[in-house]
Amino acid sequence: MTLSITEDIRSITELKRDTSAILQHIHTTGRPLVLTVNGKAEAVIIDAAEYEKNAQALSLLKLLVFAEEDVKEGRMAEAASFFREFKSARNL
Predict the structure, then answer these.
(1) CA quadruple 9, 12, 17, 22: dihedral positive or negative?
(2) I need a surface site. Which of 22, 46, 67, 78 has the fewest CB within 10 A?
């Protein structure tokens, strides 16, 4: 999802004038669109499906923070030993 500076930066005025074309561009390219006000970036619009993918990826990354803390603190076990203990505790 790389931004194209020649195609993906538009003014808020353009959005007001031609909303449907801009939304179509976002859906077609899958890239975000930067909206400007007085020549300065003000907001970014992305496709709803792309937003959901980004939100899910961010949620997974947040979970990894806890896993990294566990590793740093030595709260880990070899997979084979974990599964032995897990099966034993559940009589599997």
Answers:
(1) positive
(2) 78
Q: Is 71 left (phi over 0), alpha (psi -120 to 50) or beta?
A: alpha
The percent of the chain in helix, strand and coil, each rounded to the nearest 5, is: 60, 15, 25
Q: What is the pTM of this model?
A: 0.66
Tens digits of residue pLDDT in 33-86: 999 999 999 999 999 999 999 999 999 999 999 989 988 999 888 899 889 999
Structure tokens at 6: 């020649």
CA–CA dist 64, 51 (Å, integer) = 20
Ranges of H-type helices in the chain: 12-17, 19-29, 48-72, 79-89
Identity (one letter) of the amino acid at 88? S
Handedness of CA 48, 26, 53, 43 (dihedral sign): negative
Q: Is 92 helix (H, G, I), strand (E, B) or coil?
A: coil
